Every structure is written in structure tokens, then in C-alpha cells.
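Table S2 (text version). Query chain:
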Amino acid sequence: MFAVIKTGGKQYRVAANDTIQIEKLPGEAGETVTFGEVLMLGGEQPQVGAPLVQGASVAAEIVEHKRGRKIIIFKKRRRQNSRRKNGHRQDYTIVRITGIAGAAQ
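Corresponding C-alpha cell output:
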């Protein structure tokens, strides 16, 4: 049994006991979060939503919050003193999927 969920503008294929890295969520480590935007439930009889599967949800537990590696953005144009240097570190959350609800088998 697996599900396709949407969070943070991205889609993820998840199953029970999977650990995934997603965009940062509010909450502390150990708290439970529920993803209500389920696009598909897979298994013996797959259910595809239009656009969402009604009554389906995925429960997960927050494992930890982390930051990604630093990315350097450097822009240079061929004019004198036309340079810009900037950096970015993305925040993300690691969650463990605990269960998939609403699956009619």
C-alpha cells in the first residue's frame, strides 16, 4: 500500500515506515502531522483522485528539522563592477510515515 501526497508544492510517493525529506513544517520533533492532500492510493485496487482522493489522509511523525547545504548564487555581467554574490540554505523537515488512512481495499 502506498500513497502519493502533495506538500510544499511537490509530490511524494510514500508508504508506511518511509522516511522522507520535505519542505519545512511547523512543529517540534515527535509531533504528529496529517497530510490531507492525497492524490492517489495504490495497491491491489488503485484509487486516483480528481484531483484529491476523498476521505484519505496520511499520518506522519516529525523526526527532525535540518538545513540543506549552502548554494552560492553568483551573477557577473561584462561591465565594470557588475557582480552580485548571494547565498541560500533551504530549511527542511524529515518525517516518518506512520500510516495511510481512508484506503478502501
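Notes on Table S2: The mean pLDDT is 93. The longest strand covers residues 57-67.
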